[in-house]
Amino acid sequence: MTFDISRVRAAYPALRDGYAYLDGAAGTQVPSAVIEAIAETYRSGIGNAGGAFPASGRADAIVSECRRALADLTGASPEGVILGPNMTTLTYRLADTLSRRWGPGDEVVVSRLDHDANVRPWVQAAARQGATVRWAEVDISTAELPVGQFSELVTERTRLVAVTAASNIVGTRPNVAVIAAVAHAAGALCYVDGVHATPHVPVDVRSLGADFYATSSYKWSGPHIGAVVADPALLETLHPDRLAPAPAGVPGRFERGTPAYADLAGVVAAVDHLAGLDASAAGSRRDRVLTSMAAVERYEGELFARLLGGLAGMRHVTLYGKAPRRAPTAFFTVAGYTPREVAERLAAQAVNVWNGDNYAWELAGAFGLRDSGGGVRAGIVHYNDEAEVDRLLAAVAGLTT
Ligand SMILES: Cc1ncc(COP(=O)(O)O)c(C=O)c1O
């Protein structure tokens, strides 16, 4: 394994401003290669897709290359990659489409571990169709999502199980493969929110058992673009609303309007960037992604242990969540300070963290934090280093009352 943090950090111009960007869970910085790919798209001339001239051909090529890149990142097939502006928009679109098959007596399972973008679209679609929502609960003492409950929650009436591959506040990574297997045994589909997991671990949608896997490239060093990947054969069975002249085939019929071509070129560069994070990675881009993301998982895991160990030793800090399998994201409160005040004090020392419920609306409620300003979230991504973690720890240590 060759994960060289100075080489990685040098790829990110924004890191030169001296701030410790521990807010990656809300969106990452972007390496030069991504910025350059976006700029080059405009510099070379770009037209709308499907035309007779070269600049239009470049748009067609970018879309195809972007589907291939996302397929390499997730283990899906390029024909099953739906591109869009962000995960929330795509999930609403799929909830609208999938729920047309639901009616009274049908059931949908959602979890209180999830970001609201993988909860509310399903809850609202179920309400429209008269279907019933069943909730998978979190064990608040550990922030785990016990898988045992799914065999009770999922019945022959279940049409869909929506679950996250990693919590965006406490990092918990539930056993999605088992949950998906329970869903499939009952004939239900499994919609997996991979937005928080994708930047931190190697992803293989087939071994996860995800019928749909959603990701957002701005969480892994790309531009603000979302994608949902699925088996093209499954997409063939679904018919979203679309304009009469718009593509009728799969996956085009799930995409609305003119895409952000230059950003899609940036997504390709971001996947190439991830594939190159372990300098010793070899083989196809898919192979290199898997090797590099395994190196990222190890590197981030060590930094996260340092972060958690430091915070755990502070008597004025309350940490939430202690699942054994988790993405490197810490959520905590500090006695005597609101989460916003903590974030402001840290910002004054050039440490970026997020405060609030971070849209993990149900989980913040289950923790009893929703009405008190939520918590503080500090997340590690692959460009963070020990010095940044230590700066955060020193800043929090200084917040005694
Ligand atoms: C776990 C998770 N799911 C979904 C979303 C929503 O993603 P998007 O901003 O692409 O709509 C986020 C964004 O923070 C997230 O962290």
Detailed description of the structure:
The protein has 401 residues and is of the alpha/beta class. 39% of the residues lie in helices and 14% in strands. A seven-stranded mixed sheet has the order 2-8-7-6-5-3-4, with helices on both faces. Strands 9-10-13-12 form a four-stranded antiparallel sheet, with helices on one face. The chain has a two-stranded parallel sheet with strand order 1-11. 50% of the residues are buried. The site of pyridoxal-5'-phosphate has 12 residues, from α4. The site of pyridoxal-5'-phosphate (PLP) has 12 residues, from α4.
Shape: globular
Q: Whole-number average pLDDT?
A: 98
Q: List low-confidence stretches.
A: none
* Class by alpha and beta content: alpha/beta
Number of H- or I-type helical stretches: 14
Topology:
Elements: H1 5-10, E1 20-21, H2 32-44, H3 54-74, E2 81-84, H4 87-99, E3 107-111, H5 120-129, E4 132-136, H6 150-153, E5 158-164, H7 176-185, E6 189-193, H8 205-208, E7 212-216, E8 226-230, H9 232-236, H10 261-275, H11 285-312, E9 317-320, E10 329-334, H12 339-347, E11 351-352, E12 354-356, H13 361-366, E13 375-379, H14 386-397
Parallel strand pairs: 1-11, 3-4, 3-5, 5-6, 6-7
Antiparallel strand pairs: 2-8, 7-8, 9-10, 10-13, 12-13
Helix pairs in contact: 2-10, 3-10, 3-11, 4-5, 10-11, 11-14
Pyridoxal-5'-phosphate is lined by residues 86-88, 115, 117, 164, 168, 193, 195-196, 216, 226.
